[in-house]
């Protein structure tokens, strides 16, 4: 990753290890939140019918996917478009086709065991090629990666970009959902990617200023989160709600980074951040096996046990594969996008 336009602190981290520690910690937190959300299953036991599980899922859904796009925007850099796009296509395209192809087979053969139900192969292929399929996040992220360098090149200035993202938010709010090529998803998450990119250039503020921004962001999130409970989810308000929490969490991790890095919890977050894409890819398959094992074989019904064990098994299996298996097998590394 080229370190141009990063803060001096970020540059030193990139030069030393090729990674930014606090971004890995933030990405790790997002990955764990994702695993928790996916562990609130609806089959064979409907945990969403339990009030605290439903509220937990509502809380995570209010910011988690936007956080992934915001982080992607923060670390975005493109010096050679051809080289940049080739790298993204290789890292995201191979896992998308391998894991997405497997998903097509699973839904056509064993759909009755899956939360999304079954589908014919022709329907699944159409969904996979033109609508993002089960791995819509990768599909959408790649499209944003493809178009954002042109936005960055043609539109100069923070204020002008904010105006553009505001227009995108309004357009998304007023237009009906367009599933083709995940156009609605691109419009939904492009502002978060852009805000993440702008955050990097604005990250030179002093610690006092960052603390003030963090408090203001938390207040914004709390206000809009409460409002969304009262009036329901409105996209334009949800954008600012999500951004509020993402900025608050970023500065919270920024402040705690040094102490976190020395603790086991920080090391776990760091690993989760390093392998966040792989946790997302493998979780789609592993979650099915886990729910069958925990609920159908062991007969567990406690939501706390199901969620806790699901997250733990996902972490142990995925990190073991990525840390100890993939380094010795190049095809596995390619399939996993490592």
Descriptive tags:
338 residues, 15 helices
Q: Could you explain how this protein is built, in words?
A:
The chain has 338 residues and is mainly alpha-helical. The protein has one domain. It is built from 15 helices and no strands. The longest helix is centred in the N-terminal third of the chain and has 29 residues, at 81-109. The protein starts with 7 loop residues before the first helix and ends with a helix. The model has no long low-confidence stretch (mean pLDDT 89).
List the helices and strands and how they pair.
Layout (H helix, E strand, L loop, with lengths): L7 H10 L3 H19 L11 H11 L2 H11 L6 H29 L11 H10 L5 H19 L3 H17 L8 H19 L5 H25 L3 H27 L2 H11 L1 H22 L5 H23 L4 H7 L2
Helix pairs in contact: 2-3, 2-4, 2-11, 2-12, 2-13, 2-14, 4-9, 4-11, 5-6, 5-7, 7-9, 8-9, 10-11, 11-12, 13-14
Strand percentage, roughly? under 5%
Average pLDDT figure: 89
Helix share of residues? over 70%
* Straight-line distance between termini: 14 Å
How many beta-strand segments?
A: 0
Helix/strand-derived category reads mainly alpha
Uncertain runs with pLDDT below 50, 5 residues or more?
A: none
Overall geometry: globular
- CA-atom Rg in angstroms: 20 Å
In N-to-C order, the SSE pattern is: HHHHHHHHHHHHHHH
Oligomer: single chain
- Major sheet: size, sense and barrel closure? none
Number of domains: 1
Summarize the structure.
The protein is an all-alpha fold and 338 residues long.
């Amino acid at each position: 990753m080229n370190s141009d336009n990063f803060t001096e602190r970020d540059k030193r981290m990139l030069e030393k290890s090729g990674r930014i520690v606090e971004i890995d910690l933030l990405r790790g937190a997002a990955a764990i939140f994702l695993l928790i959300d996916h562990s609130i299953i609806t089959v064979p036991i409907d945990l969403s019918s339990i009030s605290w599980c439903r509220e937990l899922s509502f809380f995570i859904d209010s910011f988690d996917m936007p956080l992934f796009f915001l982080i992607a925007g923060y670390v975005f850099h493109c010096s050679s478009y051809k080289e940049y796009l080739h790298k993204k296509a290789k890292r995201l395209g191979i896992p998308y086709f391998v894991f997405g192809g497997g998903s097509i087979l699973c839904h056509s053969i064993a759909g009755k065991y899956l939360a999304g139900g079954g589908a014919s192969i022709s329907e699944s292929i159409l969904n996979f090629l033109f609508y993002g399929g089960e791995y819509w996040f990768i599909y959408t992220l790649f499209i944003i990666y493809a178009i954002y360098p042109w936005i960055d090149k043609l539109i100069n200035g923070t204020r002008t970009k904010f105006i553009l993202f505001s227009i995108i938010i309004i357009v998304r709010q007023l237009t009906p959902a367009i599933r083709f090529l995940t156009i609605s998803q691109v419009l939904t998450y492009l502002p978060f990617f852009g805000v993440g990119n702008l955050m990097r250039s604005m990250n030179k503020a002093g610690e006092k200023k960052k603390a003030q921004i963090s408090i203001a962001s938390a207040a914004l999130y709390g206000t809009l989160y409460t409002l969304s409970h009262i009036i329901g989810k409105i996209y334009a308000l949800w954008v600012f709600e999500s951004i509020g929490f993402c900025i608050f969490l970023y500065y919270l991790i920024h402040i705690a980074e040094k102490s976190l890095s020395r603790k086991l919890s920080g090391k776990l977050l760091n690993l989760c951040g390093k392998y966040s894409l792989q946790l997302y890819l493998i979780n789609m398959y592993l979650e099915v096996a886990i729910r069958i094992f925990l609920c159908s074989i062991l007969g567990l019904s406690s939501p706390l046990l199901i969620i806790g064990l699901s997250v733990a098994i996902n972490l142990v299996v995925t990190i073991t594969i990525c840390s100890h298996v993939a380094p010795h097998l190049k095809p596995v590394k390619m399939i996993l996008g490592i």
